[in-house]
Design a protein that fits this description.
CATH superfamily of the largest domain: MoaB/Mog-like domain
Radius of gyration: 22 Å
Shape: elongated
Structural class: alpha/beta
Order of helices and strands: EHHEHEHEHHEEEEHEHEEHE
Number of domains: 2
Strand content: 25-35%
CATH architecture of the largest domain: 3-Layer(aba) Sandwich
Mean pLDDT: 93
Number of helices: 9
Helix content: 25-40%
Oligomer: single chain
Strand order of the largest sheet: 2-1-3-8-7-6
CATH topology of the largest domain: Molybdenum Cofactor Biosythetic Enzyme, Chain A
Low-confidence stretches: 1-8
Length: 258
């Protein structure tokens, strides 16, 4: 366990996420995976840096995988590994890596725990096609695995199945310093705090600071959110922000727990 104040000594581990599916882009299916993956990775110490949503198009998938796998520690994909003709993620990832793909007997063995021999139709066996050199990512819900090839983790699009795959692959992942967050709720318009917050940001350049306006009960307000992997630095920036609010004559504000 990392002791308080030591998080800044840990490496930064980053990730990109690719959401794949025409149904997401058309609006027929509402994505539930981005928020879950973002929260999950933040909790274990992986910083999600980019999300792309793309359709079932091989060239787009190949381009996205190759662009992101060279930029981040890990790339996660969801969607496109089902039994139908438009489930092309596995083939596209194999093409991105320049490797072959075929039915993997390890995947078939897992699927046999759910399906009898006569139920392992050609359509279902499509889901057992795994790029050469990939490791399987187990799936305790439907038993049809995802896979991990180098730093790319390919998971199902169905939220519940994606979630168990994410749980299954986590022990194999490197994790870094966890991102810590402090929030201040200010009962004043964003414009009233923008200049002062800019001064604090200039003083604490390594702390990410954002202002997020809201409108409640007929009043404008602003949530100030500070983020850093360094607990001590974050605490000092937080105190400086409180002092800034007081110096600006803003009295109606309070820290938000959690």
């Amino acid at each position: 366990m990392v002791k308080s104040g030591d998080s800044k000594k840990r490496e930064t581990v980053t990730a990109g996420l690719i959401i794949i599916g025409d149904e997401i882009l058309s609006g027929r299916t509402k994505d539930e995976n981005i928020g879950y993956v973002a929260d999950y990775l933040t909790e274990i110490g992986i910083q999600l840096r980019e999300v792309r949503i793309i359709g079932d198009d091989e060239s787009h998938i190949v381009e996205a995988v190759n662009a992101m796998r060279g930029s981040y520690t890990y790339v996660f994909t969801t969607g496109g590994i089902g039994p139908t003709h438009d489930d092309i993620t596995a083939d596209s990832v194999a093409k991105a890596f320049g490797v072959g793909i075929d039915i993997d007997e390890r995947a078939v063995a897992q699927m046999r725990e759910r399906y009898s021999a006569d139920k392992l139709t050609p359509a279902r066996l499509r889901m057992a096609r795994i790029p050469h050199g990939a490791d399987l990512v187990s799936n305790s819900v439907s038993l049809t695995p995802g896979f991990m090839i180098e730093n790319v983790i390919v998971m199902a699009g169905v939220p519940r199945i994606m979630q168990v795959m994410l749980d299954a692959v986590t022990p194999q992942l490197r994790t870094g310093a966890k991102m810590l967050t402090r929030t201040i709720r200010v009962e004043a318009p964003e414009g009233d705090v923008a200049t002062g917050l800019g001064r604090v940001q200039a003083e604490f350049a390594d702390v990410a600071m954002g202002s997020y306006p809201y409108f409640e009960k007929g009043r404008l307000g602003t949530n100030l959110v500070l983020r850093s992997t360094d607990e001590d630095l974050l605490g000092r920036a937080f105190d400086a922000t409180l002092q800034m609010l007081e110096s600006e004559g803003i009295s109606d504000f309070q820290p938000v727990e959690g």
